[in-house]
Amino acid sequence: MFVLMLSMAYEYTTKEAKYVDIRKVKELKFHKDRNTNGRAQAPGPQMRPQKVDYQPDVITCKSESVFGRSPRWQCKASEAGVDITEYTIECEGRDGDSDNFVLEGSCSILYDAVFSDNKKYQKYTESPKYQKYDSYFSNYRNFFDNGVYRRNKNLSPINVNDISVLVFEKDEKTESKKGEFYPQMMAKSGNQFEPDQIVCRNLGSDGQMPVWKCRAHLDYPLQFN
């Protein structure tokens, strides 16, 4: 379900469907036990929990700003004592995944959660799976703010297989204890395209290294190879 705050200039309608510019959407709401709309893709759940199988009644995401061509969201659960973590929002684009014009009602949220009220959420916090995630996330959030790297040279490395989301930003450098700094984005030779931001989600391991799915919101179709 969309909560839209935009003008008709940011809408695109066909006979079959209505598309909106995701950059102009101020707020999104995701509801438990509701499905997305789908045209090119099959409808699916609006909420897609990952490591922690928790679903509040509603998750509300507000667009804090538009970084380059993609919104940066701040997401909260409708229930107190819980933080929504490592979230990404996926929508069906009119001309592919990178299109900013998305099918109305097609967005879903992939996320995890940590709980500050252990008594209220005891059925989640007592599970070994959650305790493992909570321990990992306590370290992860010292490095990252929902995928955006925090610069702190006094921390120990974390296992790349445990990272759910990574964000790479144009004109930003990597960190290094060896003093070897590189651009976060390094295009292949001959590549003429450089987005302002690339978001990569960990799909799981191939047995040795994580497999990543990367997306960028652009004004034109683009695939990463």
From TrEMBL:
Q: Which residues form the signal peptide?
A: none
Is Cell cycle set as a keyword in this record?
no
Q: Name one GO cellular component term.
A: endoplasmic reticulum membrane
Primary location = endoplasmic reticulum
Question: What highest taxon heads this organism's lineage?
Answer: Eukaryota
Has keyword Signal? Answer: yes
Keywords per UniProt? Calcium, Calcium transport, Endoplasmic reticulum, Ion transport, Membrane, Signal, Transmembrane, Transmembrane helix, Transport
How this chain sits in the membrane, per its record, is:
Single-pass type I membrane protein
Pfam families documented for this protein: SARAF
Q: Which GO terms describe its biological process?
A: calcium ion transport; regulation of store-operated calcium entry
| Location in the cell | Endoplasmic reticulum membrane
Q: Which family does it belong to?
A: Belongs to the SARAF family.
Q: What is this protein called?
A: Store-operated calcium entry-associated regulatory factor
- Please name the source species: Hexamita inflata
Question: Mind giving the lineage of the organism this protein is from?
Answer: Eukaryota, Metamonada, Diplomonadida, Hexamitidae, Hexamitinae
